[in-house]
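Q: What would this chain look like folded?
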Amino acid sequence: MLYGLSLLAGIVLLTLGGEGLIRGAVAGAKRLGVSPLFTGLVIVGFGTSSPELVVSIHAAMNQQPDIAIGNVVGSNIGNILLILGLCALICPLTTQPQALKRDGLVMMLATGLFILLAFNGSLGRFDAAVLLASLAAYLVWAYRSESGQHSPSAELHTAEAEEVTKLPSSTLFIVVALTAGLALLIGGSQLLLYGAVGIAQAMGISEAVIGLTIVAIGTSLPELAVSVIAALRRHADVAVGNILGSNIFNLLGILGVSAFLQPLPLVERMASFDQWVMLGASALLIAFLYTGLRLSRGEGLLLLVGYIAYLTASFTVIS
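A: My prediction, written as structure tokens:
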């Protein structure tokens, strides 16, 4: 019971902390005169992944590499199979060809790069530098491809920034929001990891499985809630772009930072099973989207069934 409450409390604090950090950072960017496009693309993009980032860094520094890597791999699998599957069942999802060609390609390349770098069984500091350099290159490409034009993705990133900036931009607000957000993220990550590891030990489940499932779902719950609400309001056209961007940030940014701070060995089950599920889910999503630039309800159902099968295999067959 204690571990379960700790897990739930950690998820709540991570959600609140991520929201506070985003709003403080965006308000600060507005005060410094940073463009809405750059703010939406980089600051909001990183901010929505801040729960995953803090949890993976905390796990890496606590010598829990299975959770640090599993959180990212599991989040990427869940983003595609669970979140997009549910959203497509509610409302068929559309995507823009420009965003699909760029972000879909980069997501596949980032997934392949992770598998290649982890082929020797670990992610070291050189691997981290490659991942972070790749993220920087992607951000430059994305900014240049959207700057100065009225593409749907550019409008989306600008709208994201403008939506968050409908708040005070005073120095006091910025400092309080950033400080409180960071404190909640740190406290939430500690509670989440304490509860998750405690549950794993009590149930005799490996930390890898916990990281790939419970922790990954917990850190992705804010994204799940936002995506489902958007689908219910028939604004689901933004869901695909958000998921593609999130998966890119997770692989290149979160794993890059975590492995740079603490080299991460890759557990055998992730090398032989989970990373290939992530690659397969990514390829399946891109294949679905290229056939009509939409994700239908039938395809969403297939994704959701795939996630249920993945969870079943994780807890029964491949533990």
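The mean pLDDT is 82.
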